[in-house]
Design a protein that fits this description.
The complex is a heterodimer of chains A (114) and B (114). With 114 residues, chain A is mainly beta. Helices cover 0% and strands 51% of the residues of chain A. The chains are: A mainly beta (114), B mainly beta (114).
């Protein structure tokens, strides 16, 4: 089955530690995205990538980093510089960039930092 | 820049009753419009989308939405809800061309009461 996988589903870290969230897709999509979801705030774009070895900052990129070394993979690192990292993180992909294309979402990773 | 307003954060409705979830957007250019559904602790799933053509769009699970350009609205409707429709619903807008960035509303939690 084609789709997007995110692992792990739940992640716990101590404050001050960096943590990497995994996102893999087998849909052969060029574009991939990371969103952060907080209660009552909807989804906010962290980073997106239109093609391998290229990525762009979204609305709330501070304290996060990404890489896109393979078409299928778009890992997100939450660094110790992120002031409020506890949230639900969603990865998505679409065939191309451009408003015409639907985004497909993974099941999400819930990160808790204490 | 685009923005999306979902005026109702929570909508309780009895089973088999009709429901309307409101969405208004603002944009200086033509847009594409989407409704996504999110079940607890899961990713988002596309319900329906408006790209062009008929202003009445039909989606999955019996939902439909009507694009009203003059009122800049894209309200979601279902004539008879089921318990399984209990979820959070997000309206999103994307402009024509450019990066495929979706701007999401803050969501409406639909609770179907038996």
């Amino acid at each position: 089955d084609g789709g997007i996988t995110q692992s792990p589903k739940y992640l716990f870290r101590k404050e001050g530690q960096n943590v990497t969230l995994s996102c893999e897709q087998n849909l052969n999509h060029d574009a991939m995205y990371w969103y952060r979801q907080d209660p009552g705030q909807g989804l906010r774009l962290i980073y997106y990538s239109q093609i391998v070895n290229d990525f762009q900052k979204g609305d709330i990129a501070e304290g996060y980093s990404v890489s896109r070394e393979k078409k299928e993979s778009f890992p997100l690192t939450v660094t110790s510089a992120q002031k409020n990292p506890t949230a639900f993180y969603l990865c998505a992909s679409s065939p191309r960039t451009g408003g015409l294309y639907e985004q497909y979402f993974g099941p999400g990773t819930r990160l808790t930092v204490t | 820049a685009q923005s999306v307003t979902q005026l109702d954060s929570q909508v309780p409705v009895f089973e088999e009753a009709p429901v309307e979830l409101r969405c208004n957007y603002s944009s200086s250019v033509s847009v594409y419009l989407f409704w996504y559904v999110q079940y607890p602790n899961q990713g988002l799933q596309l319900l329906l989308k408006y790209l062009s053509g008929s202003t009445l769009v039909k989606g999955i699970n019996g939902f439909e939405a009507e694009f009203n350009k003059s009122q800049t609205s894209f309200h979601l409707r279902k004539p008879s809800v089921h318990i399984s429709d209990t979820a959070e619903y997000f309206c999103a807008v994307s402009d024509l061309g450019g990066a495929n960035n979706l701007f999401f509303g803050t969501g409406t939690r639909l609770t179907v009461i038996p």
